[in-house]
Amino acid sequence: MPSKLCTRVIFLSCCIVLLLTAAASAAEGKVRLFILSGQSNMAGLPPEISFTPTVKEAFADDEVIVVKDAVGGQPIRRWYKQWKPANGPAPEKTGELYDRLMTKVNAAIKDKKVDTISFVWMQGERDAKENHSTVYADAMKGLIEQLRTDLKRKDITVVIGRLSDCLKNHEHWEGVRAAQVKVAEDDPLGDWVDTDDLNGPKDGLHYDKPGYAELGKRFAEKTIALLKKQ
Question: DSSP letter string over 52-97?
């Protein structure tokens, strides 16, 4: 029969091992993936200026992976594969930029177990100018569902940048703005950011340097808030 001292030593050793294991597991933290995409105003946003630092500060114990792929002047149909216009036939080719984005995403995460995924979207100018506002909400919802299905994650959070007030009183511009807000607010894991004050005193199409820095910060803050609700 082991002595009481031996039993006590064994018990304490087991406790220490369990505590060290738990500490090591906690130290590993989570892996958080942030996917940024869209057209020119996303292309002009350098994540390393404000988005990534803000996210890393909020999740200091976690691994943060930021993947950005954006191309100026592109309509949402270059991401959403089932896009259809309000009238006429659907285009033969859609989704090329989505495939390019996903290639980058898959290369970035490799075999990592990703704990959270966030999608940040800044696009819509081209669709407004092509008068496709009436189908924008369906396309945006479709793109989000496409991403959640492909990554097999229904818990992907979504933050949409609403178009600025660059083209006031333009029917389809205002239509896209309204669609972006509705999609974000209807999605339990969605939110949106205002960009009306980011494009300089002349209300230009593109944002100025401070505007892009602020946009990254706003995107990060909204994304962090959504993740902390999960």
Answer: HHHHHHHTTTSEEEEEEEE-TT--GGGT-TT---SSSPPPS---HH
Distance, in Å, from the CA atom of 118 to the CA atom of 158, rounded to the nearest integer, reads 6
Q: What structural domains and CATH numbers belong to the chain?
A: 31-229 (3.40.50.1110)
Closest CA to 50 of 40, 38, 58: 58
Give the mean pLDDT of 121-147.
98
Global pTM?
0.88
* Max CA separation in the chain (angstroms): 88
Mean pLDDT of the chain: 91
The kind and range of the H/E element at 181 are helix 171-186
Handedness of CA 57, 41, 222, 36 (dihedral sign): negative
pLDDT in tens, 2-28: 555 445 544 444 444 344 444 444 457
Question: Strand, coil or helix: what is 153?
Answer: coil
pLDDT at 202: 86
Dist. CA 24–CA 123, nearest whole Å: 41
